[in-house]
Amino acid sequence: MSTPGDASPVNASFCDLCDSFLNENGKESITSLTRTLDNIANDLAQNEALRAQMGADSPSIWPSLRRLWDFLAELVTSHEDSVSTRTLVISISRFTRNLVAGVSANQQNAFENELSLRQILYFYSSWSANQDPGSYTVTRMAVQTLSNMVTSNESLMSRLWETYMGLSEEQVVIIRLLGSPDARTILSLLVLLVNCIHESSERRALLVTKRVGVRICITLLDRLVSLYDAEDSSDGAKAFDYGYHLFAHLFDGGFAPELYKNLKVAEEVIAPHQTTLLKLLDSYLQSSHSSAAPTGMCPMFTKCFFEFSTYSQEAAKKAIGNGSAEDAAGRYGDSTVPDSLDLLFPKVCEALVLVTQCIVSIMLFFEENRTSAISGDDMRPLIRDAVSSEGQNIAVSAIELLRLLDIFLPRINFGKPVLPPGTEQKLNSPAAADPTGFSYLKRDLVRLLGVLCHKDKKIQDCVRNCGGITVIMNMCVVDERNPYLREHAIFTLHNLLEGNTDNQTVVDSIQPSRTWGEDGILRAR
Q1: Is the pTM of this model over 0.90?
Q2: Residue 281 included in any domain
Q3: Helix, strand and coil percent figures for the chain, each rounded to 5
Q4: Peptide bond preceding 421: is omega within 30 degrees of 0, i.e. cis?
Q5: Are 120 and 76 in contact (CB under 8 A)?
Q6: d(CA 171, CA 212)
Q7: Does 80 reside within a domain?
Q8: pLDDT tens, 367-423?
Q9: Directed axis angle between helix 376-384 and helix 292-320, to 10°?
Q10: What stretch or stretches form a coiled coil here (predicted)?
C-alpha cells in the first residue's frame, strides 16, 4: 500500500479483518490483526493524503474502528491484562494515532472513541500498572492517540477540556497519568495539555478555577519538583520544560494571582505548592514576557511580601524577645534560647526571598523596557505606595525585618557566626546552626531597598525616618549566608544618598565606635 488510490481496497480489507476478529470464533487472531494494523499505520504516518482518503472512502472504517475500541475497553476493564491485550492496545492506538494526525474530519470521527480510550487509560494509570514497566509503552501510546485526536482542532479540544474539568477527581485520568514513573509518558501528556491551553483563555481559566483543574496543577507542581534534577536532554528534562511552558502560558494570560490563591491551604501562611509556583514565577519574570502580565502580578506580590514579612518579624521577635541587642545578649547567652524555631518560619523566609526577587525583577523590567502603554514611573507606585495592615510600606517593612534579622541571623564569616555589638559570643540560636530557608534573605531585602530608593526621594526619606540608614550600613559586611551582601548594601547606600542632602548629613554624623578584627569579630576602637 503506497498510493492514495489503494485506500478503498484497504478500507474493505480493514473492515473485513475487524469483522473477522470481532466474530466469536476470530478473537484468537490477534497476531494477524496487529500485524495488518501496524503495516497500515506505518503507511499512514508517511502520507497525509492517504490518511484523509482512508477516512473518507467507502466502505467507512469508522463503525469497525468503533467496535474495536469498544471491545478493547471491555477487555481491559474486565482486568484481562495480558501480553496479547497490551499488544492489541498498542496496535489499535498506533493505527488511530496515525490516522487522525492533522486531518480534522478523521479527528471528529475518531473522537467518538474517547470514552473507550479514557477507560483504557484509567486502567493503565493505576498504581499496580505503574509498578510494571511493561505497561509504560501501552500508556504512552494511548496518551499520544488522545493527543492527536484533538490537537489543532479547537472544537474537540474544548469538548475534551470541558468534559475532564467536569469529572470527579477520581475519574480524571490526567491526574492519574501525572503519577506515571515513565518520563516519556509524562512528556506525551504535557504535550497534550500545553496544546489544549495554548491561545485559549477559556481553557486556561478552567484549569485555574475548577476544582479538578487546580488538582491537576497541584499534581503537576509536585511532578516538576521530581523532574527538576533530570539529566539534560533526557525525557525527564524535556517533560520539565513542557511543564514550565504550561505554567508560563497561565502567567501570560494573567492567571498567576488566581492560581496562587487557589493553591492556598487553610490556616497556613504558605503552602508547599505555592512556594513551587513562586519559583516558577521567579524564573518566568527573569525571562522574556509581556508588560501586562507582571503589572497584574504587582498586587499579589506586595500582598505576599507584607504577609511574609509580618509573619517573619513576629517569629523573630518571639525568638529574641523585644528585638534589642541587650535582650539578645541575655537570651543567646543562657539556656533559655528555644531549641527549635517556629517550623514555618524557614519556609516563610524561603517564600519571602522568592517574592522579593520577583518584585525586583518586575521593577527592573519596567525600568529597562519603558513603553508607551506603561512606564516604570507608572508602575512604581503600585509597589512603592502599597501599605500593609500594620501601616508599613514595603521599604519600612523591609527595614524592620532587617533590623530583627541582624540579631536573629548573625552573619557567617569563615564558617562562624558573628554577633551584633553587645551580644556575647556564646550562641545557641538554631538559625545560626541551620541556615535552611534563611539563605539570601538579607541580601535580597537589601537589594530590594536599593531598587526602591533609586532616584526616589520619597523612599529615601522614608528609610531615613525609620532609622534605616544605619541598618543598611550594618549590612556592609561579608556574610557567607548572603553572598554579595556587602556589595548590594553599598549600592543601596549609594542610592539612599544620591541627591539627598538630609541622608548625607545622617551618614556624616555617624562615627565608627568599633572595627572588625581579622577574625571577623567587632571590637572597640
Answers
A1: no
A2: no
A3: 70, 5, 30
A4: no
A5: yes
A6: 10
A7: yes
A8: 776 654 555 456 778 888 898 888 889 999 999 999 999 888 776 554 555 555 555
A9: 30
A10: none
Assess contact for 117 and 70: CB atoms under 8 A.
no
- How far, in Å, CA of 94 to CA of 107, rounded? 14
- Domains held by the chain: number: 3
Do 390 and 511 fall within a single domain? yes
Per-residue pLDDT tens over the stretch 221-252 = 999 999 999 999 999 999 999 999 999 999 99
Dihedral class, residue 387 (left if φ above 0, else alpha if ψ from -120 to 50, else beta): beta
| Rounded Cα–Cα distance for residues 162 and 156 (Å) | 10
Provide the domain limits for residue 112.
Answer: 1-150
Domain shared by 117 and 212, yes or no: no
Of 150, 184, 216, the one marking the end of a domain is 150
User: Quick one: 261 and 313 in the same domain?
Assistant: no
Residue reference for cell 519574570: 285
Task: Decide if 273 is inside a domain.
Answer: no
Whether residue 450 is found in the same domain as residue 511: yes
CA distance 381 to 225: 35
Q: In degrees to the nearest 10, what's the CA dihedral of 309, 315, 316, 318?
A: 150
Residues 200 and 157: beta-carbon distance below 8 Å: yes
Do 141 and 175 fall into the same domain? no
Give yes or no: residues 252 and 302 share one domain: no
Residue whose cell numbers read 506603561: 374
Mean pLDDT, to the nearest integer, of 131-144?
96
Residue 404 domain flag: yes
pLDDT in tens, 63-102: 999 999 999 999 998 877 888 899 999 999 999 999 999 9
* Whether 215 and 140 share a structural domain: no
Say whether 400 sits in a helix, a strand or coil: helix
Q: Which CA distances in Å does 241 have to 51, 273, 384?
A: 31, 18, 34
Whether residue 294 has a cis bond before it, omega within 30° of 0: no
